Amino acid sequence: MQAQYDVVVVGAGIAGAGVAADLSRDHRVVLLEQEPQPAMHATGRSAALFSEIYGNACIRALSQASRGFFLDRDEEPAFVTPRGCIHIARQDELAGIEALASEPSVAPFVTALNGDEVRALVPVLFPGVVVAALSENHSYDLDVDAIHQHFLRQMRGNGGVLHCSSPVTRCMHDGRAWTVHAGDRVLRAPIVINAAGAWGDVLAKMAGAQPVGLQPKRRTAVIVDPPQGVDSAKWPAVIHIGEKFYFKPEAGKILMSPADETPVDPHDAYPDELDVAIAVDRVQQVADIAVRRVEHSWAGLRTFAPDKTPVVGYDSRVPGFFWLTGQGGYGIQTAPALSELAASLVRRRGIPDALAAAGVTQAELAPARFQAPGGASSQPETSYEPINGQASR
Ligand SMILES: Cc1cc2nc3c(=O)[nH]c(=O)nc-3n(C[C@H](O)[C@H](O)[C@H](O)COP(=O)(O)OP(=O)(O)OC[C@H]3O[C@@H](n4cnc5c(N)ncnc54)[C@H](O)[C@@H]3O)c2cc1C
Questions:
Q1: Which residue's CA is the closest to the ligand 1 atom numbered 16?
Q2: 4, 102, 134, 239: which could form a disulfide with 110 (CB 3.0–4.6 Å)?
Q3: Which pLDDT tens digit goes with each residue over 345-361?
Q4: Does residue 381 lie within any of the structural domains?
Q5: How far apart are the CA of 303 and the centre of ligand 1, in A?
Q6: pLDDT tens across 148-194, in order?
Q7: Domain interval for residue 120
Q8: Protein residue whose Cα sits closest to atom 14 of ligand 1
Q9: Is the confidence at residue 381, as pLDDT, over 80?
Q10: Nearest by Cα to 313 from 285, 345, 338, 284
Q11: Atom 20, ligand 1: which residue's CA is nearest?
């Protein structure tokens, strides 16, 4: 017997959970996840930072529009806690600071600092090496688990259903609705939402849609002890102006990343030893942080469309196939605004007013921007090999 829904959402990371929560208010929603638990891929592996000057102008608009959601919560745990964020430069990198500060979507949100002011915030930075920074006016640590669980709770409260260990392996449209095979379940719905993260193009091909050129890129995170005798808890996140590395306090430790962007196929990512060593080396070129041992490291996939803007909207050729992919390195901090936007487009109500006023357009998000005009949709692929619960942190 086939279970009937209005919307099948594939992928229970932050993207799938967010849009499912919104749509469950007036749709029968089912959220399908291939893993035994949700958030085992990109969502569970992020650096959990909210930086509203990160990414391109569209990402900044989505992040700035999400800030209210994160701050307005009056329950525990809070979605965000204040965390400064400074973008640092050496002498030969000052042009990068000037270029960033001159952008209209950045200028109102930053304050310029000189080398002494930077070291007053992070005393372990070497004098004479870091000479300037831009300090963000509104940056935060995000409680990713609290945000993700909030969306799932909201969805369940509205009658939505989450099925884990349910890899979607077939997705067929018969002219009226989709039949979706997920593990031992068969579901019917007129709308399928592609929130499959790194697997977005894989799912699209399975449904007979033209892929949009999503590229998963591996990023590594490393946890080390803070320097002895130094209180690092209040340090801001320190990001290299050219994004070659960053470090930030993390639950009594220091999180370092080489800000790697290694293109890979979708898979359960794991850290490469060399990237771990590069993370430590790059941080140690600017800061006096001795590393006796790496306590823990992990990697995750940040998945980008070719223009680094998310892909959101109905496929123009495959009926009822809706894209919500390509969140790159910004999927948590943009989730509130992107979920609302996606749900509005699913309901065919256009871009929400506040985002439209901020300059976000349907055309810049549409999957059609990467699909050959007039080209036929492809034959559905039926060779998907699910991970089947092999993923681990
Ligand atoms: C190291 C690192 C640091 C980051 N730091 C930040 C940060 O500081 N701030 C920020 O905002 N963002 C950050 N990001 C980015 C952020 O984590 C992602 O943009 C976001 O999590 C993407 O969410 P998603 O739901 O699209 O993808 P995912 O969380 O990967 O979810 C997609 C889900 O789809 C499931 N799936 C795929 N195919 C199928 C199928 N066929 N059937 C069923 N299920 C399927 C997968 O199992 C997966 O659970 C970081 C990412 C990494 C890796």
A1: 331
A2: 134
A3: 999 999 999 999 999 99
A4: no
A5: 8
A6: 999 999 999 999 999 999 999 999 999 999 999 999 999 999 999 99
A7: 80-142+215-304
A8: 329
A9: no
A10: 345
A11: 331
